[in-house]
Amino acid sequence: MAWRVFRFFLFQAVGAALGYALWAGQAPSLGVIVGLVLASALWVLVDLWRGMRLLRWLREGRVDQLPDLAGLWGEAGARTRSLLKVRDQQLVQSEARLTEFLAAIQTSPNGVVLLDSQGRIEWCNRTAADHFGFDPQRDLQQHIGNLVRDPAFAAYQAAQDYSHAVVMPGPRSSASRPVLLSVDLHPYGEGRKLLLSRDVTALEQAEAMRRDFVANVSHEIRTPLTVLGGFVETLQNLRLDAAEQQRYLALMAQQAQRMQLLVSDLLTLSRLEGSPPPGVDTWHPACELLGQCERDARALSALVAPQGQRLDFPGTDAPGELAGAGSELHSALSNLISNAVRYTPAGGQIEVSWQILPQGGAEFAVKDTGPGIAPEHLPRLTERFYRVDRSRARETGGTGLGLAIVKHVTQRHGAQLRIESTPGQGSRFAIVFPASRVRALRSGA
Ligand code: ADP
To answer: Which of 389, 395, 431, 445 is most buried, by CB atoms within 10 Å?
Structure first.
């Protein structure tokens, strides 16, 4: 600064000296004044020119192209440039942070929509666009109420009570593929709102299944209990002869056994759901599994179709071994066989087969000449308590859980359950086991 003041005075002095020298003959003092004025004017002009260049540079905003300026303006320019650079760096950093932040929200499994104080969409992530059917670009600045028209959401917005979420169907929801969204609003800033959406279809379905399950179990237990209660009352209040008493007691035992079966199937299902899949280190010879099933099936057939059914089994020469949990495998195979026996009328035929497949793995199949199942029932057969014909299923003494158990066991063993059926002709239930769980030769054979 002192150097600059010194240069200014030096410049004035040179101007004064020049004026004095030029006018030395006529009017030296006037020469000094003119020299001083001209020197000052020149100084101011040069400064003005520099200032103008700096101003132009600032207007153009090209930070890197600072004009070569000396003096005060030069320093002001250099300092402005470094300040601008710092600001630019900060800007770049905050933009990078914002981009990262938005990228993180993009990956969120939940929908996120930022609404301004008027309820217009400022930004939304892809999940939200998918949930509500928005176009993330075109629908910006659109009012949320114009795009999400569900009455439940409109009422939620109007009530302005954001302490809970609202559940509404998604725009692409249909009867065959329902989509349920849980949506909640969170006010923030000055009148702004954060809208969060979550796909709760699976959760709601699980909850509905749980409710149905409890209702079904209660119903299934209540029926034999009511019958049992009725018999107990009859035995208490009526004087019955010994034969009649025996008949009632037999019927009571039947109902008690039905409840036992149900409870045992429920326990089996919960064990299957709660335990890790069986390992591949325990091998069971197919002929032993099938032999056990055959004995059970013949006993059941004699009971439910005393007039006779034809049962064909592969016999003791069924080849190979199966890896997994023996009790589970037996339960799955015998459930399929017992269904065939129970649903096939007397005189019908049940054919059980077992074959090692050429491409690896093995197929266990039960084919019957029973009533068959209409195609619309097939996808739901393995649901718990699903029955094609309720009264008939009850007659045959089923719990409605057999195929659900079969499905769980097949899944746990990496196998596939295949069902083919033609109404009036019969059904074929097959389990295809993967190569990893089948070995063609028995160890030591
Ligand atoms: P249930 O104990 O009632 O037999 P399942 O889960 O084993 O229960 O079977 C579900 C339903 O599938 C049965 O109620 C029956 O309507 C039908 N079903 C199963 N197997 C057969 C079959 N072999 N032939 C005809 N219908 C069958």
So the answer is: 431
pLDDT band at 71 (very low <50, low <70, confident <90, very high): confident
Structure tokens given for 317: 């020469």
Q: What is the DSSP string of 104-166?
A: HHHT-SSEEEEE-TTSBEEEE-HHHHHHHT--TTTTTT-BHHHH---HHHHHHHHHT-TTS-E
Cα of 187 from ligand 1 centre, angstroms = 54
Three-class SS state of 237: helix
Contact 329, 410 (CB under 8 A): no
Where do we find the tokens 């509500």? 132
Ligand 1: distance of its center to the CA of 425 in Å? 15
Instruction: Name which residue sits closest to atom 10 of ligand 1, judged by CA.
Output: 387
At a CB cut-off of 8 Å and minimum separation 6, what does 40 contact? 12, 15
The pTM score is 0.67
Q: List pLDDT tens digits, range 80-124.
A: 889 989 999 999 999 999 999 989 999 999 999 999 999 999 999
List, in order, residues 6 or more apart from 101 with CB less than 8 Å away: none
Q: Does ligand 1 have an atom closer than 6 angstroms to the CB of 343?
A: yes
The 10s digit of each residue's pLDDT in 263-291 is 999 999 999 988 899 999 899 999 999 99
In ligand 1, the atom with minimum distance to the C-alpha of 340 is 23
How far apart CA 217 and CA 225 sit, in angstroms, is 12
**Ligand 1 pocket, residue 368 CB under 6 Å:** yes
- Residue 436 structure tokens: 């990893």
Query: Which residue minimizes the CA distance to atom 3 of ligand 1?
Result: 400
What is the per-residue pLDDT for 394?
Answer: 60
Determine the pLDDT at residue 330.
95
Stretch 196-217: mean pLDDT, rounded? Answer: 92
Would you say the CB of residue 427 lies under 6 angstroms from ligand 1? yes
